[in-house]
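note to self: the first set is below, dont mix up w the second
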Amino acid sequence: MNELQVTFDGRSYTFQPGQTVLIGRLSDSSIVINDPTVSRRHAQLTWGPVGWIFENLGQARAFEHGQEVKQVIVRKPVELSLASPQGPVVRLEPLDAPGSQAAPQAGPQAASFGASPAGPPPGFGPPGGLGPPGGHGPPPGGYGPPPGGAGWPPGGPGASAGAGPRAAHPAGMGDELVTAFEILIPVKTWLRDAGWRQGLRLLVIAYALLPLLFLALLSSSSSLGVPGFAYSLYVAPLWAIAFWLLLRPGRIAALEIYVGIAIIVWVTIWLYAVTININDHLVNAVRNGNFLAALAVGYNEEITKALPILLAALILLKFRATKLDVRMWMFLGTISGLTFGVLEERLYTEMAIAQVANASAVSQADAGVLDFAFRVFVDGFEHAVWAGVAAFFIGIAINYPRRRWQLILLGVSMVAVLHGLNDWSVSTFNSYWPGILIQAISLLLFIGYTMSASSIERQVRRTPLFRGDSMAMDILPEPKETGGS
């Protein structure tokens, strides 16, 4: 056995006896392995009287069939995993060359001993018949290892694997520290990992960095509404995820994404074009404790959120003959409510910041800070809860045409009354407790529908009261349903 063939990553390399084959990450290695778990000088192959010998350098590790090995005499093809049982694999294969005597390149020790697979003979003398021609004595320098110590396993002939000093090119302390760093902090491996594209990991990164970016980019803003708007947008996606987990509306495909975008655009335009102008005529009456004015505000704002849900459902029904699951309509309703809340919070948080800036007592400043936090964290959620309840009734009404408009009116009226009561209680009672009670009732309705939406829809399907033709929609063909209940 003279030549050695080393195969790694689909490429094969052939080496002659007498060569020292270095394996590692360094670019001047004989076999370069660009893997962070592999040491810069990981292993070497040398030619000796027993043939080719593989051995680890420094603290590097290698594995054969899952078992760690320090040194391997390559008498037959063998596959070794570097660094770990799952690490890069190199295949070592000795090749039979014409003539079993050592090649001239092998050096004097090979000429004396040949490539005997049985290891060096006792007493270090040449085996019978394999000495130099003519019966001359040992080659100059005796039968010891060749210069550089590459001819014997570490510790001399016959030494056990891993014993004695390391062979040439040992890894230094610096190399070991670099290897340990790359194993324990594998930045290159992380950057190549497809897990970076998972939404949850990206969300964690965004939510860790955004507050610092807000400070860097918005700290010099001259508008008091900017902080509230920024943090409302920051919180809204978290509520959207929570609503999705509560509702489990099914797979969100391209259709649902387009509908959601259309709802966001509608609410934004309608809020500034219609809703705010109507509320401006009612705000003073609400502040004076007028319940009818507060109720009108409730209807005004709930219609703003419910109208795009209704229009989207009717358009899908008429032009695509498509019905979405009721829970999907509830989820889209919460998106409408969160959009409304984000846009509204900008106005209220501006007032809260002004209250803090103009406070003459600690209690006033505290109230302003708490109001800012409420608007950012809860106001959008509150609007989303009301819009989700209304969207549930819209979904039932669209899917089951009989009593369609009565169902829509019922759903919008339920949340509009709660909304109006909430606004009226703020201006009438010098206490937060009525608002807490109204919020609790709203949550009871919303969470109740998230839990029983499917069972309610099944009962509606079996009840003739909700089936039949609708006078307003009888020109439409009976649509196909998409999504189970």
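second set (the one i keep forgetting abt)
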Amino acid sequence: MVNPHGILYNPVSLTDALETYLTGRTYKTQDLFHNRGIWHSWDHHGRFSHPDRNEAIRNIHASQRAAISRLKEADWLILTLGTAWVYRLKSQGRIVANCHGVSSGEFVREILRPEEIIARLGNFLHRLSAYNNKVHVILTVSPVRHSREGIVQNNLSKSILLYAVHHLVNKFEATYYFPAYELIIDDLRDYRFFEQDLVHPNQQAVDYVWDHFIPFFLSSSSQTTLREVSEINRRLAHRPIFAQSDEYARFRNTLLEKMQELEACFDFLDFSAERKMVIEGGAFD
């Protein structure tokens, strides 16, 4: 499960969202606000916004229920901090997860202190260990530059996040740091590894981080399984010149047998959709 509240950038909004999974909070229609014909939640990303207030709440509830269930059973939780800059809504005195296009004059921009981040995340980690005592936590800092804050302000923000994260890793057991930020900013160190906006890492950079993540956190047996599944995905992208040939029939049968073999070994793997596409011979999405 990825981002049950949608993408969240600052540690306050992130921990506020995580706390709702621990408490089982239910959002109500009065928690939403209306702006430019759309209903929004100050706690959620814009992907939950909707012209119909009831539909927005239904989508929030569905994601909330799934997150509560998943966090209770999770073995691993990855938390990525994006920025220490926050926007506080003047009318309510609260930090928002997303401004949703509301005028900047309605907010006060602030930067969090390391102590605030440590206190917020530390309290959550304490409660999480009681909620699910088998979960391990991976903390990372996003290498995406928050350029709208300015280069100097972005670097200040990232340094605060890094300080807070390392403090928490040293304090809590079963909590680890993965250096995605350093791999992009200090190891690659070149704008050719970024998209044209010079802010977001490109696919080559993402692959580079992933190649470091695999040996960092996956066991040897899991790495082997990953390679086998990746090989199936690679074969699924194959487009035959002659789909009715004996050669392609052998290729297809071998692929189906490999799927069945892996499903028999791992009950969490389900290739039913892929198997259907291979059997029907249609294009695989």
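remember for set 2: The radius of gyration is 22 Å.
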